[in-house]
């Protein structure tokens, strides 16, 4: 009766719809996970897993790699954010776009490309005659290697968080400091640095949580050297399926969730007392002049960019063009056989392409249909309800994908109630898990666009006599179309190559692109894995470039890598 | 059409002072009412309750025999047959001017020639026929405002609501738009409710002015009546630039006071008459003139306004008074003033 009896613009089906969506995609799976975890701790015999040294070793590995990964990502991301935002570096726009790429490249592809760049079998090193002798160890198969790649992969997250703070620094504040007689160096250390500290801390926390939940990198770098993090431990427990598996993996996922939450708690602790409301004119702070250093700094940035992006990708391309892993690449040995193989011969990769494209486009469209009503509800309701709803939508995305996968395994292992169909082992369970994990990816651009919309536009339509559906179709959807488009593309971009969720949920015939890359590498077909990765990277860059091209027409905050 | 009446209307948003407190008001059919008050006085909330964007927490709203909102029923804005001009104009940026104006007709299922004819008429009445195919983004502020007006005109609504429609326009454009509003009111004959915090705007446009403060209705009346005979200190200080003096007055004396009784009240007396009570008296600056037979006052500030000097004076007992002078006066100078008229609040 909501709509009859209040000035509320929401139709009466909206509230139940929102509750149902959030229940199915967030509350139910996570509740089920928590329940199974607690039950197996209290009743089942699963508490021995807590006594296994391998578990605590995995916890230690996870912590140490995540911490060092965070440090590296803060160093790289932080310096790029400072230099590209505040200083007059040449080619800032291009550098900024390139710097975002590692975030969107799937982690297992990052790992593969770095393996292709280093070690005794590196096609790239062999081609230039610099490869270490055969038999020497691959240096990346180590905790240090995992931490380094975490750092590279997550540096853009720190960059984005810090850049947002840097851009919100009031220009007049900086100018006032300059007039008070502060030198550029003093302005930097007295004004700018304290003001952007919250952004830096937030970026570090996001990076830490992302490291804890990363699966692709430790799977490719750790498992061959028997180094397990919590995520890969869940995977290996699941692979050797037994009676206690469900209990064990729910406890392990619980641990992963606890570590992530700990990271966020530390963040909150450190942010306390640093809530600087920035007043006054914000905007691109007057660029500091680098003077004589301009050229050297530019060169340095391009060198770092080459090391973390170009060379690994070049190595990946080289590996995909070599006839077999370890064979030197020369003009004579170059072959496109690997591409032929994955596109025309291997049924598995073709299925994987189909599955991933189908899953990610379906997930993107379904999520759009959920996001628009949920967004309307969030923006048009009271602040408290809105915070609760968006919090519930955010949790599954904040938690590592592997936790979501475990939750849906527990939820859907048996036949579904009422319909009696088992979706476990089909594409549908992956689709469901995608919808849960990426709801917040889809929701965020729509909400930020809707918030920027003048509410009187809808009120004018109400007075014109238009009902809810009519207003949606005639007024709101056309105005939100760009943001909706961005939402669809973003979900597609992230879902099309993800590995963490589908690694546990796939079975014969339902493998995704991420799984196919991992399996090809796992079975020793490094060149096929590289070729498939190259195709994925090309796809990612193409989609990102499309978004970048239309970004100026989108409302602020819709494209996540533009602040 | 019918008259719009608000009966004991209240609205509170959670804890604290209610935004609108027990407000009763009747707007006659075809009247043009200005809701005037300082920002935060609840006038916009009243407007939004009439439109149906907010539900009253108490009281009722009626349009003739039809109950728009009370404890039991609520008619959503879609079904109220009202129109509104928003402060931000609320033109839909993805539609052309003609589509914006024609949208209420489209929703009502009116199409084809009938719609385009009505749209053309509405646009002609605001002199925007040539802009039908433009987008709102290509128009100036005043033109957007006129499109918003045309959109109100097109469905012949029972009530037209205007929410500070001139706040975003510059002074020159305001005068032009005021004229457009008056013409619009004359032509359409619709009941209009106009929210503003600018008293000269309210006085110039409306047939009736309602003064609100802190959620309460203080006074309703024709602009001239409100200006000449305000009720109470709050209205007295809101309307015009008068000064309020506390003077000993016989309660039985008329409310309009002349120089004789004022000069009596202003002269210090050793032994006041037992019936005399202190009362608030509103003195408008145009009623104060510099004259040798007047009482003494000291010039505090003197501000040149072009056609005259605006003075702030203090009387011997420290009370403040405003006056105008055609001749320059020095600050600190002692002058004599005669007060031609005062109004007991």
Strand portion of chain A, in percent?
under 5%
CATH architecture title of the domain at 52-278 in chain A: Orthogonal Bundle
Task: Name the shape of chain B in a single word.
Answer: elongated
Cα shape of chain A: globular
Order of helices and strands of chain B: EEEHEEEHHHEHEHEEHHEEHEEEEEE
Q: Give the termini distance of chain A in whole angstroms.
A: 41 Å
Radius of gyration of chain A: 25 Å
Rounded radius of gyration of chain B (Å):
25 Å
Structural class designation of chain B: alpha+beta
Helix content of chain B: 25-40%
Could you tell me the CATH topology label of the domain at 52-278 in chain A: MetI-like fold
Estimated helix fraction of chain A: over 70%
> Strand-residue fraction of chain B?
25-35%
CATH superfamily of the largest domain in chain B: P-loop containing nucleotide triphosphate hydrolases
DSSP summary: helix tally of chain B: 9
Which strand order does the major sheet of chain B show? 6-7-8-3-9-10
The top-level CATH class of the domain at 52-278 in chain A is Mainly Alpha
Which consecutive residue ranges of chain A, at least 5 long each, have pLDDT under 50?
Answer: 1-5
Description:
The complex is a heterodimer of chains A (563) and B (345). Chain A is mainly alpha-helical and 563 residues long. Helix content of chain A is 71%, strand content 0%. Chain A contains 22 helices and no strands. In chain A, helix 2 (53-86) packs parallel to helix 6 (143-167) and helix 3 (92-104) crosses helix 6. Chain B is an alpha+beta fold and 345 residues long. Chain B has helices at residues 43-51, 97-107, 112-125, 141-153, 171-188, 199-205, 223-228, 232-238, 259-266; strands spanning 4-11, 20-27, 32-36, 58-63, 66-69, 82-85, 159-163, 191-196, 208-213, 216-221, 243-249, 256-258, 277-283, 288-304, 309-315, 320-325, 334-339, 341-344. Chain B has 2 domains: 4-229, Rossmann fold; 241-344, Nucleic acid-binding proteins (OB fold (Dihydrolipoamide Acetyltransferase, E2P), Beta Barrel), CATH 2.40.50.140. Chain B is elongated and about 80 Å long. Chain A binds chain B through residues 3-9, 454, 456-457, 459-467, 470, 474-475, 478-479, and chain B through 48-49, 51-55, 74, 76-84, 86-88, 90-94, 103-104, 107-108, 151, 155.
